[in-house]
Amino acid sequence: MKKRLLTLSFALLAAFAAKAQKPEMAQAVVKYKFTHLRDTTAKDKPYTENMVLFVGPTASAYKSYDRKLQEAMMRKQLEQQMAEQRGSGNMNFKVQSRTPTTNTEYYQFQAEKKLVRKERLITPYIIEEPMPVINWKISADTASFGTLHCQKATGHFKGRDYTAWFCPDLPFHTGPWKLNGLPGLIVEAYDTNKEVVFKFEGMDEVVKSEKPVVAETPPPGMGTTIRFGGDDPNLDPNLITLPTDAVKTSEKEFVKLQDAMRKDPQAFMAAMGGKMGMMPPGAMPAGGGGGMGPVRMVVNGVPGGAAQVINNPLELPEKK
């Protein structure tokens, strides 16, 4: 098993890394409340998550807001525990993760008609595909979302019939998730049965700062302030750009990696050389060494995509 993992991981890592995409500064950040009825036998318990869409002139990036909050909280927990245990000889870290969050990010590049999905299995991976083409029918119906005056459109996509409200005054041909192709920003969207909903929660204009660090204040009770945006701490968080260390792969190969990680997480981590955003068991924290004893880390909580009934996936097979 471990040998097969090594062969697979080395083959992927040997593939060329993500081709540098020209970075683009976001002009606005749109907030959505994403709701998805994953289990039709538990209609009173839909999956919900706060998401954000970074919107630029020709590109956009759709990410989990809740995930960034959790990552910031986990980093804070690690920093506190490292400070408390420094010099003890043995370090034991216990990190609490509250709820499942989405690990996937979607990047739309309208000028190149390309959609890029970013995944992370210790190492970041990107999967490219053509920009989805949705046959929208625009109606004369209008509605307002906050101060935004929007127009209605309907279209069929990935096995579902969607209603989308777009704002013609905002000349961005993008929207949440994979939705795109309307003459204005998609502000809100939902399928016929409202099993999938992208609810508009507000929009902020991006104010350019001389400093690359932009802080985001979380909702009351979260207890921390986070830096929100890209993976590289040296870049402006409002910059829409793919990670330079990402490995470009195919859907087929990525599925193989996912299966390998589910079957044997420890062997997978060993095969990948222990490269993790968070420290794996036995790893040294940054600046560690110098007589430090074994390091052990336990993450409590349910990681995104963990054992949950999904009999109603986001993308449904098309009816023949």
Descriptive report:
This is GLPGLI family protein. Residues 213-234 are annotated as: Disordered. Keywords: Signal. With 320 residues, the chain is α+β, with helices and mostly antiparallel strands. The protein has one domain (2-131, 188-300). The radius of gyration is 21 Å and the shape is globular. Helix 1 (2-14) packs antiparallel against helix 3 (251-263), helix 1 (2-14) packs across helix 4 and helix 3 (251-263) packs across helix 4. It is built from four helices and 18 strands. The longest helix has 21 residues, at 65-85. The chain has helices spanning 2-14, 65-85, 251-263, 265-271; strands spanning 24-25, 28-36, 47-55, 59-64, 91-96, 105-109, 114-121, 123-130, 137-145, 148-157, 160-167, 185-191, 196-205, 215-216, 226-227, 239-240, 247-248, 295-300.
* Counted beta strands: 18
Q: Please give the share of residues in helix.
A: 10-25%
The largest sheet, given as strand count, sense and whether it forms a barrel, is:
12 strands, mixed
Structural classification: alpha+beta
C-alpha-based Rg, rounded: 21 Å
The largest beta-sheet arranges its strands as 9-10-11-12-13-2-3-4-6-7-8-17
Q: What's the overall average pLDDT, rounded?
A: 78
Strand content: 25-35%
Shape: globular
Instruction: Return the string of H and E elements.
Output: HEEEEHEEEEEEEEEEEEEHHE
Q: State the end-to-end CA separation.
A: 39 Å
Indicate the low-confidence ranges by residue numbers: 1-19, 211-228, 274-293, 302-306
* Helix count from the secondary structure assignment: 4
Integer count of domains: 1
Pfam families: Porph_ging
Region (Disordered): 213-234
Signal peptide: 1-20
Protein name: GLPGLI family protein
